[in-house]
Amino acid sequence: MDKNESNRTHFGSRFGYIMVAAGAAIGLGNIWRFPYLAYGGGGGIFILCYLVIAIIMGHPMVEMETATGRYGRGNVAASFGAIKKKYSFIGIIAVICTTLIDFYYIVVGGWVLKYAFSYLSGANFGTDTQKYFDTFIAKDISPIVFSAIIVIITAILLYFGITNIVEKVTKVIMPALFILLIICGIWAVFSTPGATEGLKYYLLPDFSKFSFKVVADAATQVLFSVGIGWGIFVTLGASLSKDHNIKKDAMWVTICDTAVALLAGFVIIPSAFGAGVDVAKGPSLIFVVMTQIFEELPGGRIIGTLFFLALIFAVLSTLFTIMEIPIKWFEETFKIVHKKATIIVSFIILLGGAVVSLGFGLLKNFTLPWADVNGLAHYNLYDWLDTFTAYLLLPLGCLLTCFYIVKVWGFKGYEKELTADGRDGKLSSLQKILATIVIPILMIIIILNCFGIIK
User: Fold this and answer.
1) Per DSSP, what are the bridge partners of residue 369?
2) Interatomic CA distance for residues 370 and 388, integer angstroms
3) DSSP secondary-structure letter at 284?
4) Do residues 73 and 238 lie in contact, with contact meaning Cβ atoms separated by under 8 Å?
5) 3-class SS at 341?
6) What single-letter DSSP state applies at residue 192?
């Protein structure tokens, strides 16, 4: 065992690692973003594209990132610089991307906490659930307070290390999330008239709705649902012992992430379809549409409470790792202890989140430009950060990871780490083709979609 190996804190069990790794990607992207993209993307045909892309892109990327982290034994930038230091910039892009996502992720996490509290306290959402939502997010103080609570909870757990307290907590909340979503889905489907038509739309592909735009949206969603391009699995892989079978672990992580996304669609799309409401509401989907549906369902208060409690679990399980990514980089770059790095980075993220939150209130008239083939658009802080990270930096990160594996590390060195020097099989020709051709093409499609070139 080398020096870096012996100095890293390892996960206590394989199950604990898989729950932390799956939980890192299972968040609002699965439960909020997936359903409205699936609905707008044609239902069943989107699901089919998503499943194919999760297999040919999601799973191989988890393997590549995890192997990079386990070999490098450092933060995401140091791990990419393990072969040649100049390529640490790939990891720095991931750190920047994930930190920017943290800024707006904690804002939405604060909204979730607010709604969970509202359901638990029996708050009245009124007849206009859109007005209730808009009034809350436009406030200058309350949303920031709820975001701060989310950050503080996450920071306290990370303070004691992601392979210690966080692993123990995640081993409980991840199974609980699955159970809550299943309960919500069964309750919603059997309580909503017309929900079976929604299930048909969701599950049966209509090939007439197929387009490159559907492929681009499905591929983008895989980046969120599986959690690739963020540096998540590089960071977690750095704390993975040589005993772990990366190929098998990556498979289970991808299955868990995809299962939660599919479950979320199972909860939301049939319910909305049966209730005759539009689920393509963007950021307000789960707060406006689902609240409206829960108010009309028998026992809606109970199911709404369970739904938002499940969302809190999803928010925390993701934040544990996406906050750890900049924390670990800060700790190792500036040579400070983990606890101090946790406090500093948490404060920075909270400040960034406060600015994004104010973009719906005090700074609502402040916009940033975004250029595409249609001309110059202006987005608020939330939308600009979402577009910049999800549609540009994440696919760029995956593209550069493929380049790193193929050209910098080389398949021979990568295979040795991935398979533990042959113990866990070998690298197939298909895996090489995916890393060299298929995944880069999918990333280019996402970027072209981002700038309006593919419609």
Assistant:
1) 378
2) 9
3) G
4) yes
5) helix
6) S
Query: Whose CA is closest to 47, among 205, 230, 165?
Result: 205
Strand partners, 372: 375
398 within 8 A of 443, measured Cβ to Cβ: yes
The type of residue at 367 is: T
| Rounded distance between C-alpha atoms, residue 370 and residue 408, angstroms | 33
Would you write out the chain's pLDDT as a tens digit for each of its 455 residues?
Answer: 344 444 455 665 677 677 776 666 666 677 767 877 887 778 899 999 999 999 999 999 999 999 999 999 999 999 999 999 999 999 999 999 999 999 999 999 999 999 999 998 888 888 888 899 999 999 999 999 999 999 999 998 888 765 556 666 767 766 777 777 777 777 767 766 667 777 888 888 989 888 888 898 899 889 988 889 999 899 888 888 888 899 998 998 888 888 888 887 877 777 777 666 666 555 666 788 778 777 776 777 887 888 888 788 878 878 888 898 999 999 999 999 989 999 999 999 999 999 999 999 999 999 999 988 888 999 999 999 999 998 899 999 999 999 999 999 999 999 999 999 999 999 999 999 999 999 999 999 999 888 888 77
Dihedral sign computed on CA atoms, order 11, 82, 158, 34 = negative
Tokens of 441: 């093409």
Annotate 96-134 with b (16+ C-beta within 10 A) or e (fewer).
Answer: bbbbbbbbbbbbbbbbbbbbbebbeeeeebeeebeebbe
Residue type, 443: M
Half-sphere exposure of 52 (CA within 13 A, CB side): 12
β-bridge pairing 368-372 and 375-379: antiparallel
SS3 of residue 375 by DSSP = strand
- Residue 371's H or E segment, with its range, is strand 368-372
- Looking from the CA of 225 toward its CB, the CA atoms found within 13 Å total 35
DSSP string across 79-111: HHTTT-GGGHHHHHHHHHHHHHHHHHHHHHHHH
Q: Report d(CA 152, CA 146) in Å as an integer.
A: 10
∠ Cα 115 155 397 (to 5°): 90
User: Which tokens is 89 given?
Assistant: 């910039």
Write down the pTM of the prediction.
0.87
Q: Are 306 and 290 in contact (CB under 8 A)?
A: no
> Left (φ > 0), alpha (ψ -120 to 50) or beta: where does 128 sit?
beta
- How many angstroms from the chain centroid is the CA of residue 331? 23
| CA gap 404, 98 in Å, rounded | 19
Q: If DSSP codes are grouped into helix, strand and coil, which group holds residue 138?
A: coil
